[in-house]
Amino acid sequence: MTVFLGFAVATFVGTGLLMLPIAKAGAGGASPLEALFTAVSALCVTGLIIVDTPVYWTGFGHAVILALIQLGGLGVMTFASVVGLAVIRRLSLRSRLTAATEAKNIGLENVKALVLGVVKISIGIEVVVALILTVQFGVAYEKSLGEALWLGVFHSVSSFNNAGFALFSDSMMGFVGDPIICLPMCAAIILGGLGFPVIMQLRKQIRTPRLWSMNTRIVVWATVLLLVAGTAYITALEWNNPQTLGALDWPSRLLAGFFQSVQTRTAGFNSIDTAEMGTATWLGMDALMFIGGGSAGTAGGIKVTTFAVLFFIIVAEIRGDGAVNVFGKRLSRAVHRQAIAVALLAVALVAVGTVLVMLMTDFSLDEILFEVTSAFGTVGLSTGITAALPPAAQLILVALMFIGRLGPITFASALALRQRTLLYELPKERPIIG
Description:
Elements: H1 2-18, H2 32-43, H3 53-56, H4 59-74, H5 76-88, H6 93-102, H7 111-139, H8 145-160, H9 179-194, H10 196-205, H11 214-238, H12 250-263, H13 279-291, H14 304-319, E1 325-326, E2 329-330, H15 333-360, H16 365-376, H17 391-417
Antiparallel strand pairs: 1-2
Helix pairs in contact: 1-2, 1-4, 2-4, 2-17, 4-5, 4-8, 5-6, 5-7, 7-8, 7-9, 8-9, 9-12, 10-11, 11-12, 11-13, 13-16, 14-15, 15-16, 15-17, 16-17
């Protein structure tokens, strides 16, 4: 509840700031819906927009969006814990509990080190990527030092936090064949999507995989497999599409295919026109967006660990194994239930959201499913219909972004932290399955 309230307060403040006339280009201020949608999309590191970010908002508005992205990526409670450390040099028990819940860390003894580690890792990666982008924007695209630095910082923070906000009206389509722009952004997105616990362990034990925890092994291998599969799938289906990859030379096609696969890790940038992709490509991207990235990071979706656990459960059941074994360790039965609960809840939310939006619009099922999955997975990729949706449908996407950023985290944490001991057991009985 504390985490939920923290994000709610941050949303309220961000919406208020974006409604100020100074945040909007031209006369007057943004409407409440425009400000709310943008604030939630930034805070929940999604990237869906209903107004053109570089044109509609002023420099002040862009700064507010960037602050919300950073706040949402770090986590409201992590940020609050950092402020508390700076002010009183210690964390209260309540602060440690809420920070541990948000960071998916059950132990309380290392929360202070965890919080400081998260901040150091975030800032460090963002600075390195920002420097590379700044140099490229300045040298290759002849931007002034101030503009190149702002573009570098904004897109670095947006990348690492998997936000997908860009300061170009066509996102990153103008840089589709530029590896010095695309690859650093992809690296930041992948690192942010691994999750802070995985990054912190890799930083210390990257050369000794045998010491990695089960969580780190699952996240690393699942991420690699999904990136490779996504790249192959998108590149193959769009290779001859003249509206997307077909108009590029083959090195640019491979780079663009990889870039788009990375974005389904819940980042949301696009270097080719998503609206012109085939429906089969959209469906595959729906699945990748639904899975998302690693836990306790900046990515959304049900998380690769949940997906991997479900996969291992299915394999064990098909083989007739009495237990689910992963990387030489037995998987707790409590984890089975948590993964199934999170996945089914997510499926229900996407299904209900899709049906509700369908009842309000005339857009096709594949377009609506893509937008809803993108909102729930906090991805930000769009077929281009978000701005054309009626206000009620846009509010549904706002709710899905908020739930997608908080729901799976708080729901899974509640399952992991809450244990009820029964003093009795009921008799067993098995229904027919399948």
